[in-house]
Amino acid sequence: MRAQEWTLAGAFGRLFRRSESSPTALEIPSRSESTAANVSPNEALTLGAVYRAVAIRVAALCQLSIDVERAGQVIDSPSLLRRPDIDTSYRAFIEQTAVSLSLNGNAYWRIRRNDRGEVSTLEVLNPHDVVIRTSDAGRIIGFTHRGHDLKSDEVKHLSKLRVPGTPYGLGPIQAARAELRGAIDLRDYASKVVSTSDVPSGVLSVSTPLSDAEATTIKGAWTETHGGKRGVAVLGHGATYAATYLTPADAQFLESQRFSVIAIARLFGVPASLMLSGIDGSALTYANISQEWLGFVKFGLADDIAEIEEAFSDLLPRGQRARFNAEALLRLDTAARYTAHAAAIAAGWLLPSEVRTIENLPEVTGIDDRVPPARPTEKAAA
Questions:
Q1: Mind listing the pLDDT tens digit for each residue in 266-296?
Q2: DSSP-derived 3-state class of residue 3
Q3: CA-to-CA distance for 268 and 99, rounded, in angstroms?
Q4: Is 377 within the bounds of a domain?
Q5: 311 CB neighbour count, 10 Å cutoff
Q6: Which residues fall within 8 angstroms of residue 319, CB to CB, at 6 or more apart?
Q7: Is 200 left (phi over 0), alpha (psi -120 to 50) or beta?
C-alpha cells in the first residue's frame, strides 16, 4: 500500500499533500487561500498580544502539578512524569509542548524505551521538522524527523482541533491567518505613519487664487521664517495658517489595536483581563474574575490539559492514569480558600491530608486522626 506524505510548510504553516498523479509534486492550494494572508508562527509572535496570549497559556500549564492515579488512588509519580526528558527540566518540557500546541497546533514527543520495552525518556521535537506519513486510507503509519523515518510507536503526537481529512491538528494561528495578518498590517501601518508620515505640519491658505510662483514664494517665506526657528510670521495676500497634526490616539489607531487584542485573546481562549485589556461595559469584580478564571481553566486550557494527560497516560504502565491538579489556578484568595478547606473538613467530605495535597504541602503523619468526627445535621439527628 502506497503511503501518502503530509508536511507543514515551515515558513507559512500551510498544509500541502503529495499529488496522487505525481508523487514528487505538491498539490497547489486553491486561489481562495490568499498568499498575502499567510502568517508564520514566528511572525505571529511579533505581535505583542499573541506573545502575551501564548505566554499566559504556558505559564498556566507550568503551574499545574501532575499526579498519577491507580484504581482511584494517587500513587508516587514515576520518574517519567517527574522528569520526562533527562536533559531538561519538567517545566521546560511542558513549556515546549504547550508552545508547540499554541503556535502549530501539533506537538511531538520522541519516545525512547529501555531494554524491557518500557518508556524511559521523552523529547519534544520541533514540529516544523516532523512529517506525518499516512496510508491511502488516511491512517498514521509513521513519522519522518529530519529525514529519518520513525515508527508510529516511536513518536507520541499531540494535537489541537482535529479536522477530518488531515492528520494534523489545527492551531489558532493556522485557523485565523487572515485576522492575524490584519493585526500585523495595522501595527506596521501605524508605525509607518508615525515614523514617515506625509501629513503636513500645517496649511497656508489665502482668499484669492494663487499662481504656482506665488504659492512657492509664500511657502518659501514661511519655511525660511519657521525652518527650525521661532520667529514672527508675516503673511500677505490675506493668508492664514492652520496647524495640522495627528493625536497620539489617531497615530497609533488605538481603538483598532485594542479590538485586535480582544480578538487575539478570544482566539487563544485567554480572558481579556489577563491580556490587560477590558471589554466595554464590563466591570472587574472578585466574583466575575473568579468566573473568568474558572472559564479559562474549564474551556480555555481544557484542550491542552486533556491532551497532555492522555498522552502521559498512554505511556504509563497499564492501569495508571496521569491527571493535572488544576486547583493551583483557582487560588484567587488565600483567606477564602482556607475557609473553604475548613468547611470541607468540618463537613467530613475532605481530610486534612487531602487538603495538604491540594496545597502542595508535605505529609504529616497522623494528621487525620486529630480531626473530630463530623457533626450530624439536625435532620439526621432527628
A1: 999 998 888 876 555 455 444 566 677 778 8
A2: coil
A3: 12
A4: no
A5: 17
A6: 70, 71
A7: beta
In angstroms, the CA 107 to CA 58 distance is 14
Q: How many domains is the chain built from? A: 3
In this prediction, residue 185 carries a pLDDT of: 87
In single-letter form, the type of residue at position 141 comes to I
The whole-angstrom separation of Cα 236 and Cα 254 is: 40
Q: What is the mean pLDDT of residues 80-104?
A: 95
- Domain match, 225 and 125 both: no
CB neighbourhood size of 279 (10 A): 11
Q: What pLDDT shows up at residue 380?
A: 46
- Closest C-alpha to 303, from 122, 138, 161: 161
Structure-block grid coordinates of residue 202? 500645517
Statement to judge: residues 221 and 129 lie in one domain: no
Report the greatest alpha carbon distance in the chain: 107
**Same domain for 282 and 189:** yes
| HEC per residue, 236-287 | CCCCEEEECCCCHHHHHCHHHHHHHHHHHHHHHCCCHHHHCCCCCCCCCCHH
Residue type, 257: Q
Cα separation, 79 vs 77, in Å, equals: 7
Q: What is the pLDDT of residue 15?
A: 40
Are 108 and 230 part of one and the same domain?
A: no
Query: Is residue 380 one of the residues assigned to a domain?
Result: no
187-234 pLDDT, tens digit each: 887 777 666 655 556 666 776 776 778 777 777 776 766 655 544 455
Same domain, 271 and 350: no
Nearest to 140 by CA among 129, 126, 154: 154
Q: Yes or no: say if 364 and 318 are a contact pair by the CB < 8 Å rule.
A: no
What domain range is 239 assigned to?
200-245
Compute the half-sphere exposure of residue 251: CA atoms within 13 Å on the CB side of its CA: 14
Residue 209's SS3 state is: coil
pLDDT tens digits for range 115-170: 988 999 999 999 999 999 999 888 999 999 999 999 999 999 999 999 998 999 99
Cell of 324: 493535572
Q: How many residues does the chain have?
A: 382
Q: Mapping DSSP to helix (H, G, I), strand (E, B) and coil, where does residue 179 land? A: helix
Same domain for 97 and 217? no
